């Protein structure tokens, strides 16, 4: 089960810790009233505070604090009732004040844990070291002009949560599972939209390698990787590089590196010697952040059901396999859809239809559950027709395809196409008699012991009745005559 | 009496009694500025036209009986307060053409109460200095003269322009900011009253930051009552400054002249420091006698960590300034000097934009926050700062107010002790501890020294007890009967 890389000198294990920057969903920025929404013409969501004008002061946005606490609760982490904001000082063109307000020594959220599940069903727990709030920087654009760079401050000051994991991750697969799980939790909580392609979730990846049983060796940090797939690639590529360095008798330097997906390699960005001295100190413009336990409790009570809890409940309440439950809770909207379909119906059948035919159709048409052409009510309506034996499973497939195309209800389609299942034993008996008469040779073979032919007779009868016969009655009738 | 010699209280009464108009009052001051500012350099920017236009509005309000507390009163504004549409320089080249599109809370409060701004007063660059000699717009001259000596004296700093303007009759009052003594020490040097309120009493929003945990705006005026009137407008909670404190603003004027019977006044032993001039020691003793006569009980107290005040201040304040001034990078506002790379542009811009004292403090601050030095300097300074605060807290369990000298010497001449930064820093030895502790403190002129220069005493109070300062200050003021005027003043110039 464990993931290792083979080198010339033996087997290597990899050690990974992730620092995820998750942009907080909020109306305004962490310390100013400017809009925190994505998009917008450059420099249109910028207040004087964001632009670092003389005399401007930060004022904490308490909605962002609530979001950080919700996230901490979702990570089953300790909420620190007193935390503090520090200044991280460095000069850059997209950092207007010359410092980023962050939480260095006293973060709002302490230790927590995230449960991940791997492809082979293994469950692992990845430790969370901390979560702290900080400001995002603006965006530097170097590709707009041959000689000049442009700065967009729309993002400057938007609240980020930096979620730091313990170095508990041991494979690219685990890193991927961790990021997907984290994103799932953030989306459930509504605290971050998790869109890595828009940059609202980014990861810094700390990678080192070691031989089994060794203490940690020197790590490198790969900055700002913006997709789960790239994180997984970057880990593999960087681990392979480090193994080669060690095996060639070299030393891995602690440094910051960049992942280049087009060349599938990591490159040194700056060494430890060039590392910034950020001169952290408590921001004198802000008081220590003190939150009441009562408020934390209130936020906790209002928390939505989290994915792990929902999965466990689905298994228990609906009697579906854990795997199916995991698939169904992947997104809140899918889980809601499923519960709507399953409500008062055969929950396992509902799970099969949602994870099977519906997901297949959505994949085929490139749609998400939110804009599914078949609503949960509509799919439930179809299951009702199956339950009351108006249609059988085979006809249901046909009805489903029609629903996809036309958006009509199952009942309308059954009416329009005359697909109502035939339960009239007279008609079925007549069809049975006709089929047997036309296949006297096969009847003889069957009676001679060729049991397999029973299915053939069923098929022939169903065909004769255009698929609408109730399969149970057909079976019954055939058995009786044969 | 000339209009430029009136107190704010008397001028406000005169305006209401229609003895003179706001236009006359403001014009007397803009004329005085035109006549004397070329010499004193108390203002960096003057706004006579806007002031006269505001005076016209004030007269209209007075005519309608809609006067507010400061209607028609001409004030100088330290050029560290951002003023909407009026150039705000912090006395620095880097902001020499900066016109803010916003108003600081303190100046907005004064405007709300009818004040008329006649200009932006000079200061040490970014409020860093004690003699107003680091301004990029040239030094300010103290309107006072030593007996038989025409040497140009320093007005103190950093609010030297405000102090000189108020002393010389170029404003009836002025705003100052005080980080380690920048209101009190120039007030003492220029023979006026200066009040540094409790940290958090006035909003810092829109005031250019030097050291955020220490900076506090306050009034400078020719009487204790005038300071009370100004503070009434300046003080108050502001949601835009998280360190401003949400508590009611009391009636400060009511405290002026209040009986001192039974008030316990502490005399801290540690302020009898080396280098304290004999004349100031004598003035201090005189102040003690006056307060005794007013019914106060004098109590000896000890503030044992006083001696660490300056050293601590010169770690904390530069540390914060090194970060606060990072935004002056030439990118979004202020002056820019181009360079081949971003870093080169930063270096050229900041080298050209900042004067030597500002650069020195940025370097000190950067050093004390650096990896490997943080614990030894910044962290230790924070610990000492809490001990200094504790000294005050413990003293205030025994006494209601402390009386000390404001500065160890009277004003000195431009060029004297100004080439040794450490010597210069000693000017603030008595004012820095109250700043470090966030306590309110006030300097009141109590007499003239041997050379004919004003001497000030400092009162330090409990947090948010500016009223006791005003009460004790007005007692000192009446006992001293300080009516001396400087050699260079508006009236004398006519």
From TrEMBL, chain A:
Keyword ATP-binding attributed: yes
Any one GO molecular-function label of the UniProt entry: glutaminyl-tRNA synthase (glutamine-hydrolyzing) activity
Residue ranges of every copy of the Asn/Gln amidotransferase domain listed in the record: 336-482
Keywords of this entry: ATP-binding, Ligase, Nucleotide-binding, Protein biosynthesis, Transferase
Keyword Ligase: yes
InterPro entries: Asn/Gln-tRNA_amidoTrfase_suB/E (IPR017959), Asn/Gln-tRNA_Trfase_suB/E_cat (IPR006075), Asn/Gln_amidotransferase (IPR018027), Asn/Gln_tRNA_amidoTrase-B-like (IPR003789), GatB (IPR004413), GatB_C_1 (IPR042114), GatB_Yqey_C_2 (IPR023168), Gln-tRNA_amidoTrfase_suB_CS (IPR017958)
EC class (word): ligase
Gene Ontology biological process: glutaminyl-tRNAGln biosynthesis via transamidation; translation
Catalytic reaction(s) noted: L-aspartyl-tRNA(Asn) + L-glutamine + ATP + H2O = L-asparaginyl-tRNA(Asn) + L-glutamate + ADP + phosphate + 2 H(+); L-glutamyl-tRNA(Gln) + L-glutamine + ATP + H2O = L-glutaminyl-tRNA(Gln) + L-glutamate + ADP + phosphate + H(+)
The enzyme's E.C. designation: 6.3.5.-
Pfam families xrefs: GatB_N, GatB_Yqey
Protein family per UniProt: Belongs to the GatB/GatE family. GatB subfamily.
Biological role: Allows the formation of correctly charged Asn-tRNA(Asn) or Gln-tRNA(Gln) through the transamidation of misacylated Asp-tRNA(Asn) or Glu-tRNA(Gln) in organisms which lack either or both of asparaginyl-tRNA or glutaminyl-tRNA synthetases. The reaction takes place in the presence of glutamine and ATP through an activated phospho-Asp-tRNA(Asn) or phospho-Glu-tRNA(Gln).
NCBIfam families the record matches: gatB, PRK05477.1-2, PRK05477.1-4, PRK05477.1-5
Subunit structure as annotated in this protein's UniProt entry: Heterotrimer of A, B and C subunits.
Protein name: Aspartyl/glutamyl-tRNA(Asn/Gln) amidotransferase subunit B
Organism: Komagataeibacter swingsii
Automatic annotation (TrEMBL), chain B:
Keyword Metal-binding recorded: no
Subunit structure: Heterotrimer of A, B and C subunits.
Cellular component terms per the entry's GO annotation: glutamyl-tRNA(Gln) amidotransferase complex
Gene: gatA
tRNA-binding found in the keyword field: no
PANTHER family on file: GLUTAMYL-TRNA(GLN) AMIDOTRANSFERASE SUBUNIT A, TRANSAMIDASE
Family: Belongs to the amidase family. GatA subfamily.
Classification via Pfam families: Amidase (PF01425)
Role this protein plays: Allows the formation of correctly charged Gln-tRNA(Gln) through the transamidation of misacylated Glu-tRNA(Gln) in organisms which lack glutaminyl-tRNA synthetase. The reaction takes place in the presence of glutamine and ATP through an activated gamma-phospho-Glu-tRNA(Gln).
Active-site residue list: 78 (charge relay system), 158 (charge relay system), 182 (acyl-ester intermediate)
GO BP term, example: translation
Molecular function GO labels: ATP binding; glutaminyl-tRNA synthase (glutamine-hydrolyzing) activity; transferase activity
Alphabetical list of NCBIfam families matching this protein: gatA
PROSITE patterns the record matches: AMIDASES (PS00571)
Amidase domain boundaries: 24-470
UniProt catalytic activity: L-glutamyl-tRNA(Gln) + L-glutamine + ATP + H2O = L-glutaminyl-tRNA(Gln) + L-glutamate + ADP + phosphate + H(+)
EC number(s) recorded for this UniProt protein: 6.3.5.7
Keywords: ATP-binding, Ligase, Nucleotide-binding, Protein biosynthesis, Transferase
Protein name from the UniProt record: Glutamyl-tRNA(Gln) amidotransferase subunit A
């Amino acid at each position: 089960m464990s993931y290792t890389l083979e080198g010339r000198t033996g087997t290597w294990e990899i050690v990974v810790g992730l620092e995820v920057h998750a942009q907080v969903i909020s109306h305004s920025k962490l310390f100013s009233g400017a809009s925190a929404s994505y998009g917008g013409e450059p420099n249109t969501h910028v207040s004087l505070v964001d632009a670092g004008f003389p005399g401007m002061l930060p004022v904490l946005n308490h909605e962002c604090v609530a979001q950080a606490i919700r996230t901490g609760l979702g990570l089953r982490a300790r909420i620190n009732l007193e935390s503090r904001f520090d200044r991280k000082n460095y000069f850059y063109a997209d950092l207007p004040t010359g410092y980023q307000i962050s939480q260095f020594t006293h973060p709002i959220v302490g230790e927590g844990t995230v449960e991940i599940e791997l492809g082979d069903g293994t469950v692992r727990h990845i430790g969370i070291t901390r979560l702290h709030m900080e400001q995002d920087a603006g965006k530097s654009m170097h590709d707009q002009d041959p000689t000049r760079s442009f700065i967009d401050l729309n993002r400057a000051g938007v609240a980020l949560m930096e979620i730091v994991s313990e170095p508990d991750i041991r494979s690219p697969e685990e890193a991927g599972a961790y990021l997907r799980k984290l994103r799932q939790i953030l989306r459930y909580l509504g605290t971050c939209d998790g869109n890595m392609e828009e940059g609202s979730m980014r990861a810094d990846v700390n990678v080192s390698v070691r031989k089994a049983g060794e203490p940690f060796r020197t790590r490198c940090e790969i900055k700002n990787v913006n997709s789960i797939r790239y994180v997984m690639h970057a880990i593999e590529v960087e681990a392979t590089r480090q193994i080669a360095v060690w095996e060639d008798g070299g030393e891995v330097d602690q440094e910051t590196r960049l992942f280049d997906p087009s060349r599938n390699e990591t490159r040194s960005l700056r060494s430890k010697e060039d590392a910034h001295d950020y001169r952290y100190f408590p921001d004198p413009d802000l008081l220590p952040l003190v939150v009441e336990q009562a408020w934390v409790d209130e936020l906790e009570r209002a928390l939505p059901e989290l994915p792990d809890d929902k999965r466990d409940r689905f298994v228990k309440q609906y009697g579906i396999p854990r795997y199916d439950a995991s698939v169904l809770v992947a997104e809140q909207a899918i889980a809601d859809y499923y519960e709507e379909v399953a409500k008062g119906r055969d929950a396992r059948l509902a799970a099969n239809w949602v994870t099977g035919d519906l997901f297949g159709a959505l994949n085929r048409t490139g749609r998400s559950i939110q804009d599914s052409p078949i609503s949960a009510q509509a799919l439930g309506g179809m299951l009702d027709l199956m339950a009351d034996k108006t249609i059988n499973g085979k006809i249901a497939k046909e009805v489903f395809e029609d629903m996809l195309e036309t958006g009509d209800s199952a009942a309308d389609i059954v009416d329009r196409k005359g697909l109502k299942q035939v339960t009239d034993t007279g008609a079925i008996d007549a069809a049975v008699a006709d089929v047997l008469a036309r296949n006297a040779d096969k009847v003889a073979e069957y009676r001679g012991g060729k049991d397999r032919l029973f299915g053939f007779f069923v098929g022939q009868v169903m065909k004769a009745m255009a698929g609408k016969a109730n399969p149970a009655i057909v079976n019954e009738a055939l058995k009786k005559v044969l | 009496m000339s209009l430029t010699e009136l107190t704010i209280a008397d001028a406000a009464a005169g305006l209401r009694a229609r003895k003179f108009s706001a236009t006359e009052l403001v014009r007397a001051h803009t004329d005085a500025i035109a006549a004397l500012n070329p010499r004193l350099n108390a203002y960096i920017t003057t706004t006579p036209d806007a002031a006269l236009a505001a005076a016209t509005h004030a007269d209209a309000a007075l005519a309608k009986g809609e006067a507010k507390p400061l209607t028609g009163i001409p004030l100088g504004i330290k050029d560290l307060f951002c003023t909407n549409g009026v150039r705000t320089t912090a006395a620095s080249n880097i902001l020499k053409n900066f016109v803010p599109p916003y108003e600081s809370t303190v100046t907005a409060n004064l405007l709300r109460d009818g004040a008329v701004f006649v200009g932006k007063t000079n200061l040490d660059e970014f409020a860093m200095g004690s003699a107003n000699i680091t301004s990029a717009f040239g030094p300010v001259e103290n309107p006072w003269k030593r007996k038989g000596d025409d040497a140009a004296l320093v007005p103190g700093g950093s609010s030297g322009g405000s102090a000189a303007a108020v002393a010389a009759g170029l404003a009836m009052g002025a705003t100052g900011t005080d980080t380690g003594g920048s209101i009190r020490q120039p007030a003492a040097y220029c023979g006026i009253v200066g009040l540094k309120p409790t940290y958090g009493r006035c909003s810092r929003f829109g005031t250019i930051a030097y050291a955020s945990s220490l900076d506090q705006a306050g009034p400078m005026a020719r009487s204790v009552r005038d300071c009370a009137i100004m503070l009434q407008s300046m003080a108050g909670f502001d949601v835009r400054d998280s360190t401003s404190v949400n508590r009611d603003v009391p009636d400060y004027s009511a405290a002026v002249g209040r009986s001192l019977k039974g008030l316990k006044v502490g005399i801290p032993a540690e302020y009898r420091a080396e280098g304290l001039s004999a004349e100031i020691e004598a003035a201090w003793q005189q102040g003690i006698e006056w307060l005794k006569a007013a019914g106060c009980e004098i109590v000896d107290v000890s503030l044992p960590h006083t001696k660490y005040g300056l050293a601590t201040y010169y770690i904390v304040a530069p540390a914060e300034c090194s970060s606060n001034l990072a935004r002056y990078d030439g990118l979004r506002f202020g002056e820019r000097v181009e360079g081949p790379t971003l870093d080169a542009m930063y270096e050229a811009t900041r080298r050209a934009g900042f004067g030597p004292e500002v650069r020195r403090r940025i370097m000190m601050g950067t050093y004390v926050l650096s990896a490997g030095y943080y614990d030894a300097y910044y962290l230790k300074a924070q610990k000492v700062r809490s001990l200094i605060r504790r000294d005050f807290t413990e003293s205030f369990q025994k006494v209601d107010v402390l009386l000390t000298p404001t500065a160890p010497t009277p004003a000195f001449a431009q060029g004297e002790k100004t080439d040794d930064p450490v010597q210069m820093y000693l000017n603030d030895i008595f004012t820095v501890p109250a700043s470090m502790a966030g306590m309110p403190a006030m300097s009141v002129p109590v007499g003239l020294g041997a050379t004919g220069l004003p001497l000030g005493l400092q009162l330090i109070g409990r947090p948010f007890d500016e009223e006791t300062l005003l009460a004790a200050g007005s007692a000192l003021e009446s006992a001293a009967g300080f009516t001396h005027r400087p050699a260079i003043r508006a009236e004398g110039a006519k």
